[in-house]
Amino acid sequence: MVPRFLDGVERWPRGDAVIDALSRGVRALPLRGGRDLLHGRWLGHPVHPLLVQVPVGSWLSAAVLDLRPGRAREAGSLIAVGLAAAAPAALAGAVDWADLHRRQQRVGLVHALANTAAVGLYAASLACRVKGRTKAGRGLGFLGLTAVATGGLLGGHLAYRQAAGVNHAEEVPQVVPAGWHRIGSVAEFPAGRTARRTVDDVPVLVVREADGDFYALAERCSHLAGPLSEGTLEDGCVRCPWHGSVFRLADGWNVQGPATSPQPVFDTRVVDGHLEVRLREPGPAEDDTAQ
Asked: Is 90 exceeded by the pLDDT of residue 1?
């Protein structure tokens, strides 16, 4: 029943105009370097799930105290903490949401609406408590917790069913066989252009520099599996054509989000006029002289 409802939310197009307007607004925010901070590039994964622990934990603890007599004051303090922590959590979630696929954005919009309702209910609960209407404050608090649980259900669907925020290049080291793999003759790779090849059905981005050096990365962007071979080359980096993540060709490092994970990188060598690649293991590369 619940999965069917959530699948229906993914396919519901009525809110797409709202999604387009909100996405443009979020992307237009003058955040500059703060955008990568909110994405969690510094952390290695989205920061939004970390930030939501504070409001959710505070509000759940307040509900426990509301079940005990004489603890209304402490419960109100926890509700206030949760309300203060909700703003940065919501901002981080909005920045991530603006760079998702449409079906993910549809679920994310309902997720945001549920959490907005929770904030409204908890704000009303706190106002009632300040005015001495403790019973009404408790009731609104429990309604707020119900809204939070609904938002959590939708957030779980986003993360675990729709794979929003996960590393879409994680499987590459698990499925690429060890050793060198021949992927084409040197003449097949024009200098200064991107090329796509495969190693055992795993797409690989290949770039030949003007000086003849070769670079190779996993071709599907770690953010949402965008085709890096269709991206643009910029100062030793490649920019994903879907959401603008930038990866350094030399080591796959994500120098700009929304990607929070680097790309798997391949060592390259030329043997008898053919290019060969090998998945680079963590740590110093072996000193393997090209033949």
From this structure: no
